[in-house]
Amino acid sequence: MTINFKRRRERLQQVMLENELDGYLIVDPVNVSYLTGFNGEDSYLWLGDSDALLLSDSRFTEQIKEESPDVDAAIRVSGQTTYGLIKDAIGVGKYNSRVPKKVGIESSSTTLALYVKLCETFSELEFVPRSNDVEKLREIKDAWEISAIRLSIDISIAAYRETRRIICQDATEVDFRDELEYRMRKCGGDDVSFPSIVAYDARTALPHAIPSRRVRLSDANMVLVDWGAKRDYYVGDLTRTYLTERGLGASSAEYRRKFTELFKIVLEAHDAAITAIKPGAVCKEIDAIARDIIKSSGYGEYFGHGLGHGIGRVVHDSGGFSPNASSTLQANMIMTVEPGIYLPGWGGIRIEDDVLVTPTGSEVLSSQLPVDE
Predict the structure, then answer these.
(1) For the chain, where are the alpha helices, taking DSSP H only?
(2) 40-44, 236-240, 299-303, 315-319: which has the minimum mean pLDDT?
(3) pLDDT of residue 127
(4) pLDDT for the residue 362
(5) What pLDDT digit, counting tens, does each position of 194-213 carry?
(6) Is the per-residue pLDDT at 92 higher than 80?
(7) DSSP letter at 169?
(8) Sequence-distant (≥ 6) Cβ neighbours of residue 100 within 8 angstroms
(9) Residue 164: is its pLDDT beyond 90?
């Protein structure tokens, strides 16, 4: 299974045509990689209406040959500037059928300094700020991307299970996090998707808790783990919340009762939202399904974040479920579903899975990990 980078660039050229752009300067390294396969840094992509040119420097000459054999490269050497490479790229010739006048540039990735310098250097060009053009293309995953994300999820689950099996009762949140991140690499991950979240007891009410060294597992009733492995530049993102040995003990009956109550509500919201996922569904309506269940149970004010987000090359990819998300789902999107209830001073419960939108409905890519494991 191979990736058709040329086809990806052609899709962006169609966006250019629809918006009357003569060229596009891609500066976000994730988007450069998505369009070319090159995974280095400090490199831009010039996309003309005819062809593309990767702009980089001599540190990456051999890497570009290996990773991006189907795209031309202009390599900057000592004494040359990136602006000189851009000037060479935009002349009439292989990359442009005519002299460009309007050039798209990524507004969310371009620094003000770069924008000012480009406008000064190329006063004859109109640089048009554009937002999310490549990110929208990235929302729809091809077969290779879906396979890569499946593998990242499998690695995430294997690492979590191994960590749960071997973690000692003296482990702090930091110890748990470090062991989990080591296991993600040991199980085949290239990296972690994001800094892992491990929280005990009351700190689970912090949706993005930073692991601490203050409490040991033996003294905790509950653990929340939010983690994911990265493999081949694609990510997984999961959350599980569970009772510890102490939390399951006879002395914690009241705590366990509260945990069971909240877990049941969050799980109902989680399952109902996933059941409603299908092509054509409106994202804010999926969010409302889960949010209304939590609200009707009396905990609406304790669910403050969106229901989920897209995943892919980055953990918060384009697209998502929130009260303001008016976009609709399409087949081959991959989204997280992660409702939660967070009670300050007591703790929080979140259940998160990764869901593929299929032509007829949805598939939970992380279904092999039970929600209560």
Answers:
(1) 5-18, 29-36, 61-67, 82-89, 112-121, 133-139, 143-166, 173-186, 245-248, 253-276, 283-296
(2) 40-44
(3) 95
(4) 98
(5) 999 999 999 999 999 999 99
(6) no
(7) T
(8) 22, 23, 48, 90, 125
(9) yes
Alpha helix (H) residue ranges in 19-60: 29-36
How is the beta sheet containing 234-235 ordered, strand by strand?
Answer: 191-192, 229-231, 234-235
Residue 164: how many other CB atoms lie within 10 Å: 17
Q: What is the distance between the alpha carbons of residues 45 and 38, in angstroms, rounded to a whole number?
A: 10
Task: Characterize 113-147 residue by residue with b for buried, 16 or more Cβ atoms within 10 angstroms of its Cβ, and e for exposed.
Answer: ebeeebeeebeebebeebeebbbebbbbbeeebbe
Q: Which residues pair with 318 in a beta bridge?
A: none
> % helix / strand / coil in the chain, to the nearest 5?
40, 25, 35
- Residues 278, 356: Cα–Cα separation, whole Å: 9
C-alpha pair distances (Å), 69 with each of 5, 14, 265, 266, 358: 10, 23, 52, 48, 32
Span 131-159, mean pLDDT?
A: 97
With cut-offs at 50, 70 and 90, classify the pLDDT of residue 345. very high
Q: How far apart are CA 354 and CA 57, in angstroms?
A: 38
Mean pLDDT value of segment 44-51: 96
Helix and strand counts by DSSP (H, E) for the chain: 11, 19
Give the CA distances from residue 332 to residues 14, 142, 268, 320, 357, in Å, rounded to whole numbers and listed in that order. 20, 7, 25, 14, 5
Going by C-alpha positions, the residue among 176, 172, 243 that lies closest to residue 212 is 172
2 falls in which pLDDT band (50, 70, 90)? Answer: confident
DSSP type of residue 109? T
Give the position of tokens 């960590």. Answer: 163
pLDDT in tens, 259-277: 999 999 999 999 999 999 9
